[in-house]
Amino acid sequence: MKHSFFISRLFFLLFFLAFAFACQENSEPEILPARDLLNISYGTDSRQTMDVFLPAGRSTATTPTLIYIHGGAWIDGDKSEFLQVKSIMEKEFEGFALISLNYRLYDFALNKNLIPDQEKDIESAIAYIKSQLNDWKIADIQVISGASAGGHLALLHAYKRNVSSIKAAIAFFPPTDLSALYGFNNLTSLGLSAVVGGTPSENPEKYREVSPTTHIDSQDVPTIFFHGDVDTVVPITQSELLKAGLEQKNVRHQFTKVPGQGHGFTQATYSTLIAEARAFIGDIN
């Protein structure tokens, strides 16, 4: 009787273990759904916010991030600018988390939020992103990008900080040497005097500190950049100066001149150029 009871219990136990093992074998790993996180604060100022677009199926091992910084001459603009190219980015940078940043804009009335303050915002935003890697299930791998003033801030961060997690930079019609840009026209001179703090002759070191070309060295990340040849806001010579600096330091780069287009491109052009950027960057880790 006892022997029979023991056999029955053993049979039940073996059956249960086999069933549990089969369920474990057949279970699918959890696939995280896509998720949008809007107006996430990375600081105490109302402008220190970001929009975060997390892809489905992401993981801390395999999901890099593309960070986008908007333009607006350091005095205007908004992270919603990214929506103009979001669908293209989602197609070409499939599997990437996409993040669009706001930063403190220069205030003429109070003479505050100069470019060095905006630099700190980019640094703080990236530090915040790093603090969320586990919660958002993304990898510590970033491509930094931006247009116009945003392209300037993206390049400045990539070259000046040399953060190991930044793997590449993409810039659309960026200011790169602010001393050389200063005399382009009266509006440029007025604006740069405000956001940098004085003229290049008054404060040459300030202009050097906030110019991406000053900080180029041989360890800088691969950089791809685009500029229209009829740009009347930021002249194409700014990208030519960047190209010369990258060549001198043997930094991998690609410069595409966009014929017949100015400060901003058509959707068709953006589609072509963003695909070009993705091909240039290739696999990153």
TrEMBL record:
Domain BD-FAE-like: 50-245
SUPFAM superfamilies named among the record's database cross-references: alpha/beta-Hydrolases
Source domain of life: Bacteria
Pfam families hit by this protein: BD-FAE
Signal peptide: 1-22
GO molecular function: hydrolase activity
Keywords of this entry: Hydrolase, Signal
InterPro entries: AB_hydrolase_fold, BD-FAE-like_dom, GDXG_lipolytic_enzyme
Source species of the chain: Algoriphagus boseongensis
The name this protein goes by in its record: Carboxylesterase family protein
Keyword Signal included in the entry's annotation: yes
